[in-house]
Design goal:
Blueprint lengths: L16 H17 L4 H33 L12 H22 L2
Helix pairs in contact: 1-2, 2-3
């Protein structure tokens, strides 16, 4: 069960893209400053990686929605399909392509 703050917000919920990006920026600044001890730096780095992955996932989902909304059939009509069905398939394909590109650049 998620913890609740006084105003009823869920404190364990994933942040929005903007919140995640702001937190990632703060983590990067802390790490770049060199002011954290090694153990705290590792914890901050792990949290930064988690926030980076969350932000990338949110960007991928947003891109899929844009792609879906701007899809057009050959006859000029909008191409509509349930987002839930396409997200898993399209996201898996994008992640596989990203993994291949990363492997090729090494």
């Amino acid at each position: 069960m998620a913890k609740k703050q006084r105003d009823g917000e869920d404190t364990n919920a994933d942040p929005t893209f903007e919140e995640g990006l702001a937190e990632l920026d703060q983590i990067v600044r802390q790490l770049e400053s060199g002011s954290l001890p090694l153990a705290e730096s590792l914890v901050a780095y792990e949290r930064g990686i988690a926030r980076m992955r969350l932000c990338q996932q949110l960007l991928d989902e947003a891109q899929l929605r844009v792609d879906q909304l701007t899809g057009v059939k050959p006859n000029g009509e909008p191409e509509l399909s349930p987002l839930e069905m396409r997200v898993d398939e399209d996201l898996a394909a994008k992640q596989a392509g990203r993994a291949q590109r990363r492997g090729a650049s090494r």
